[in-house]
Amino acid sequence: MKFKHYNLSIKDEIKNFAKQLFYSLFDDVCHKKGAHLKDSFINILEVLQIDNAENIWKDYQESFCNIREQLDLDAQIFEKTDPACKSLLEVYLAYPGFHAIAIYRLSHKLYKMQIPILPRIMSEYAHSLTGTDIHPGATIGESFFIDHATGIVIGETTIIKNNVKIYQGVTLGGLQVKKELASVKRHPTIENNVTIYANATILGGNVSIGADSIIGANVCVTESVPQGSIVTYKSEYKITTRKSYAK
Description:
The chain is an alpha/beta fold. Helices cover 39% and strands 13% of the residues. It has helices at 10-24, 35-47, 53-61, 64-81, 88-94, 96-112, 118-130, 243-246; strands spanning 132-134, 139-140, 145-146, 152-154, 159-160, 165-166, 171-173, 189-190, 195-196, 201-203, 208-209, 214-215, 220-221, 230-231.
């Protein structure tokens, strides 16, 4: 039996490229330096059999300063929102949610440029590091905040507008998983200034969470929520005293 050859080891080079690009974004890449990044990028595209690598790199590089500006806005929201945060430097160095957003913004640009495979591998690199799974096709606005990061899933056709805050375990997903829905909006829209607390699940491409709303922890939402709403899950539990301590 003859098998088709796949150069799967390119995953390692893409992960290293994404890591170095993240570092360079805060150092020299906006000043058109980073020749090593260009060489790596072109090699990756050649292995993936993507033509016109030089021009693709040039177009991609033109976006780096804008991406850096977006990330600085994201970092500022981390510093302002999290009471445990002591400085912007701490956000850049120690916050997995910020790291996930950074790789998302870098991969999203490639997605918009219709570069196949590469943005998905970059997003999976971030997923493996941070526990946050953001599809590069998602549309995310300015000043985005992810706290704790772990367990977050944001689907391909999700739209997140400005000043949105989400916490660990949040899923922005689809109601159905069918191949024929590939070109359909399957994931929700989150309007400006929404906060979504831990382990909330919001499903469906026709679902919109209105601006200035709060989605409480453990809520499952499958229909649109009006502007300025507070959605909570009420659970009933009972606390009793163990007999050994009641004496």
